Fold each of these.
Amino acid sequence: MGLDKVVKDISDKADAESKAIIARAASEAAEIKKAAEGEAKDLYASQLEKADLSISKMRQRELSSAKLDIKKSKLNAEKDVLDEVHKNFKKELQALPKEKKADMLKKLVALAKKDVPAGKIFTSAGDADLVKDSGYEYGGNVNVIGGIIVTSADGSINLDYTFDSMLEDVWTSSMKPVSDILFGIR
């Protein structure tokens, strides 16, 4: 019976040791699982934060892009309106009554005489008869809405008093006030 007792003691010891090993393994497994769950939770939170940040940035880019598109559309519409106003103003200049045009040309000739007392005068074909008594030699027709171009006899002075050039000068210098009137002060 002594041998049976020794075998039983060894078996009991082995059982106790295996239970202790299993308990330690279970405890370590629980700790590893808990640490892994914590890491997974932290990783999930980090990825969620990155995703939220990416979404926020994407929304901001889309919003900025939409605002830029709206601004471009508004500016294009404003440019179209200004172009139409410019075009209509040219049409009105072209449609001036002959008497009004004659009066304006007379004033332009008087202004030109101060700098160029003698020389050639050029005007549109439709206005040629309005400048015949200007005191200048008629130099020919030019493709303009109206007005005159006067060149000194020696060609050293060239005055451009055409409606076209005056319109462009006035238009360029008045663009901001015209825009402010049409679209409100910005």
Amino acid sequence: MHNGETETTVLLAHPAVLRNLIEQYETLRILQAENGDEEVRRRLDDIVYTLCVSTGTSDVDAALIAARHRLPGARPEDDSLRTAVESAAGTTGADELHGPSPV
């Protein structure tokens, strides 16, 4: 380090840990939607906090995107908007390669 610069160390969570956090988050969201139990809400808050800390983000949407991109097989680009548009249009990324499927 030169000129009084400090080094910042960033710890990255292992992909297996991130996968587990994502699965817990998704399960707890379903449970919260079904019954809104206080214990479920507390556990969901804890998972959201852990996801944010584990990915260096400050909100759950960014944390989920960052976590999913660290998983094996993830695409390097952020396809979250693309996926939403494709779902609304009834298409998939494969349509770009092969064209829309005949109906």
